[in-house]
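Need TraR/DksA family transcriptional regulator's 3D structure for a figure. Predict it.
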Amino acid sequence: MLLHDTVSTGRSQADAEQIRLSLQARYDELSAEYEQAVQQSQVLRLVEVGDTAGDDQADSGTKTAERDTAQSLLRTILDRRAQYEHALTRLQEGSYGWCEGCQAPIPVERLEIFPSATSCVSCKQHRERRAA
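Structure prediction for TraR/DksA family transcriptional regulator:
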């Protein structure tokens, strides 16, 4: 299961389990954060629907901005959660810690800072330059 991972990186099964637990914990945190943000968004909608009497353009604009911010937060949390889900899948498949672009190992320091990283620094920089 983690043969590619343990042989090539020297990562033990215990290390892989520690990584899995860390990734799963962060995924669970993001799931709880998402549920909380959904509840706050629903409360915001209820307040918005029930409190429109006497709204002027500024009030309308503020409510729209708040709604957009809440939706943006939800999308961001879902995106981050999907990154951790992908990292967990890669760990299970044995490809965690390897660049999806060039197949080189991703430096441990990068994974410590950004555990859901799927590319090495070089490939990430190349992709960002192409996108600019």
